[in-house]
Request: fold
Amino acid sequence: MKEQHPTKEQNPQVDSRLSRFICDMPKVELHLHMEGSIPAETLLGFIQRKGTEPSIRSVEDLNARLTYTDFSHFIEVWTWKNTFIQDEKDFKVIARDVLTDLSRQNVKYVESFFAPGDYRRMGLSIPRIIKYVIQGKEKAEAETGIRCNLIIDFVRDHGPEIGMQRLEEATPYLDKGLIGVGIGGSEQLFPPEPYEELYREARKRGFRLTAHAGEVAGTESMWGAIKALDVERIGHGVRAKEDPELVEYLKQHQIPLEMCPISNVKTGVCESIKKHPIREYFDEGLMVTVNADDPAMFNSSLTGDYLALAGDLDFTQEEIKRLTTNSIDASFLSNAEKAAMYSAFRKEWAQWETRHR
Ligand SMILES: [Zn+2]
Reply:
């Protein structure tokens, strides 16, 4: 299969050796939405199958549709894109294609969100979606060597009662491909506190916990995720700097932030990469990680995010390695798995240095 986005890996501001390193280096992805990462060819196939969008005949036509005026517009296009998923079995194709695509960037390990509840109103069965996502990810693991664990996104817009139903449906798959729970969706409309009981129950059952916070809503949403939901990680956390006490708390407790710089620029949360707070947080000693969020929606990639940090925020090779090891530390893997991954990454870096001396 040809490279999906031939130009996005190039950033003229990054020197060619660092750029090569970033493309080649082993990577971990902790904040990725499966349905926001569907390779353009795969989504185009779904669109043509449905046959309701005659104006979209190519990947270029599709990418032209994927631009956003603001966060609400992004959610609108997101919902439009989901209407082309028609069958539970599509999720097997999606999971396989998404992970195969990521393996081409040398992504070794992924913790990926998916939101089966979004498709219930289309008559799809939640347990069947979960089953097929797991089958697709297992296929990609066997074919490419990538590893993936799944996080079910309850989507805060659906409310905590529906979330509890989703938790019931997801529980049989815990440790069989599913590892955690999250809430994405319209953060500005749905604060975290009503989800306290749902998160408590998920934790009791053994699910790992993350929540989107401080992306669209402010620091009170992040405090809510920390205090009411007792999350282990925070999705985004861009707005933490509005409250110095919160920054201090994140630093003291080393609560990982799953930051997604390109996503934040594309949805209008941040004006530019240069103005993104990730550099400030990193220098301050916060536990920051780099992630792509919805790369297919932004015509971007995890590699592109790292290149942007090197180009616009002067992250050096050593700092980029540090960000990568932060992702290993912040993952929901066991300590033994983290240690094994860390040593495999170190070995790969050393081999790269030998080849590029
Ligand atoms: Zn997200």
Notes: Residues 31, 33, 184, 212, 235, 293 surround zinc ion (CB under 6 Å).
